[in-house]
Amino acid sequence: MKSLAASSALSAGSDIWVTAPVKISSWTQKIDWYLNFQITRFTQRKKTVPAPELQELWMKSFDFKIKEDFLEDDDEMVLLSSPSLPCKWVIHLPHWTEKKEISAALLKKISALNATSVRFFLPKNQAPHISKTQNLELSFVADANE
Q: In whole angstroms, what is the distance from residue 119 CA to residue 142 CA?
């Protein structure tokens, strides 16, 4: 695992970039700008529930129920970031704990994307507590406002 300076944080070198919530990371705000504010729009989305009449009509016509929301509040968002950024994917974590370990679900997503390297953009005042994982090159960037 290696630490990167702020001057090289947004340079090429990792397949996937992992970001923390916008409220606690100035890096996420910068990355979000390059992604045309997709992270902000994702975090501000509201769950929609179709009107009961529409659900009933849909059920009669197609014989299956409309899901209220296919995204859960704690789901990670995976964005294709090329050509906007020098990485292939950005994974946004809507929740971040102080001692963030790479979860099995996150590892599964990283594996599905065939990534060999991951860069974590850490929140303000947070030291890296990321365990080394097999077959992944890990790097991290401390928050720019520290």
A: 11
pTM greater than 0.90 (yes/no): no
Q: Exposed, middle or buried by CB within 10 Å (0-12, 13-18, 19+), for 98?
A: exposed
Where does the chain show beta strands of DSSP type E? 2-4, 16-19, 77-80, 89-92, 117-121, 137-141
Closest CA to 120 of 28, 22, 34: 28
Within the chain, where are the H helices?
Answer: 26-34, 38-43, 52-62, 104-112
Residue type, 44: Q
- Using DSSP, state whether 54 is helix, strand or coil: helix
CA 84 to chain centre: 16
What is the model's pLDDT at position 15? 95
Residue 87 backbone class (left: φ over 0; alpha: ψ -120 to 50; beta: rest):
beta
Are the CB atoms for 121 and 144 separated by under 8 Å?
Answer: no
